[in-house]
């Protein structure tokens, strides 16, 4: 009987030890970091069942050089943004670094730049010369919690029609539910295609802003984690990896100031 009890205890100990080791390895593998992004081509998007895009490939290289498991997950921007606001050890990208967001996250970057532009349906005859002109428009289609929507809200816009998916904003623009919409110059071509239209169906009517975008790290994440991510990104820029990745998606991009920052 004593032998049976001893054997059972020994077996239990072995199983428990194995579970602990597995858990430790799992935690070590992902470094406790949750990495979230959205459908935002060519910056981040799903292709053949894998999350890709130039910012995604940069993040993937950053984590690979730190020995962190590739656990990048694609979700809606609204979901990713709120998870990062509420929890430590969350990375979301790509994220415009705006005044409103400055103290809400820690920042690693920049990893890209773009211009936010008002677009109208081609042939609409809409003329916008200022933000005040845009405030007089009946409806402006925006994407929920995108920096462009936050920017317009901060500027006092009351005529925004918010949707969780950017393709919906294109559809609203084309079916007349909105008169103008706001997108960034590098992402709008793919968004328009996904909505079933072409860039020939739209026309830019006013440039709202030009900004850099970053990798955002949630508050409560250890300082050393943020410093390490920034250090590895700086290494990518110094050894040419960053430029190689970026140009594989946007060959003619002017990266001089982006690499220096």
Strand content: 25-35%
**CATH T-level topology of the largest domain:** D-Maltodextrin-Binding Protein, domain 2
**Integer count of domains:** 2
Distance between the termini: 72 Å
Using the CA coordinates, give the radius of gyration.
Answer: 23 Å
Indicate the mean pLDDT: 89
Strand order of the largest sheet: 4-1-5-10-6-9-7-8
Percent helix:
40-55%
Which CATH class of the largest domain?
Alpha Beta
Question: At CATH's second level, what is the architecture of the largest domain?
Answer: 3-Layer(aba) Sandwich
**Topology as a string of helices (H) and strands (E):** HEEEHEHEEHEHEHEHEHHH
Number of distinct helices? 10
Describe the sheet with the most strands.
8 strands, mixed
User: Shape, please?
Assistant: globular
DSSP strand tally: 10
**CATH homologous superfamily descriptor of the largest domain:** Periplasmic binding protein-like II
- SSE-based structural type: alpha/beta
């Amino acid at each position: 009987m004593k032998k049976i009890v001893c054997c059972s205890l020994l077996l239990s100990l072995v199983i428990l030890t194995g579970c602990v080791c597995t858990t430790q390895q799992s935690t070590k593998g992902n470094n406790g970091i949750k990495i979230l992004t959205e459908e935002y081509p060519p910056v981040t998007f799903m292709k053949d069942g894998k999350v890709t895009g130039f910012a995604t490939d940069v993040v993937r290289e950053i984590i690979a050089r730190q020995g962190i498991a590739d656990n990048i997950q694609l979700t809606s921007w609204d979901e990713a943004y709120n998870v990062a606001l509420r929890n430590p050890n969350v990375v979301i990208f790509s994220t415009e670094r705006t005044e409103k967001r400055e103290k809400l996250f820690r920042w690693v970057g920049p990893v890209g730049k773009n211009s936010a532009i008002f677009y109208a349906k081609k042939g609409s005859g809409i003329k916008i010369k200022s933000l005040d002109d845009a405030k007089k428009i009946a409806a402006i289609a925006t994407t929920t919690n995108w920096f462009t929507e936050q920017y317009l809200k901060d500027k006092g816009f009351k005529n925004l029609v918010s949707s969780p998916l950017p393709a919906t904003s294109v559809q609203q623009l084309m079916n007349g539910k909105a008169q103008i919409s706001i997108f960034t110059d590098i992402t709008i071509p793919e968004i328009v295609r996904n909505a079933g239209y072409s860039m020939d169906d739209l026309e830019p009517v006013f440039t709202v802003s030009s900004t850099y975008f970053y990798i955002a790290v949630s508050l409560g994440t250890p300082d050393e984690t943020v410093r390490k991510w920034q250090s590895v990104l700086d290494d990518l820029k110094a050894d040419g990896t960053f430029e190689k990745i970026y140009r594989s998606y946007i060959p003619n991009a002017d990266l001089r100031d982006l690499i220096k920052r």
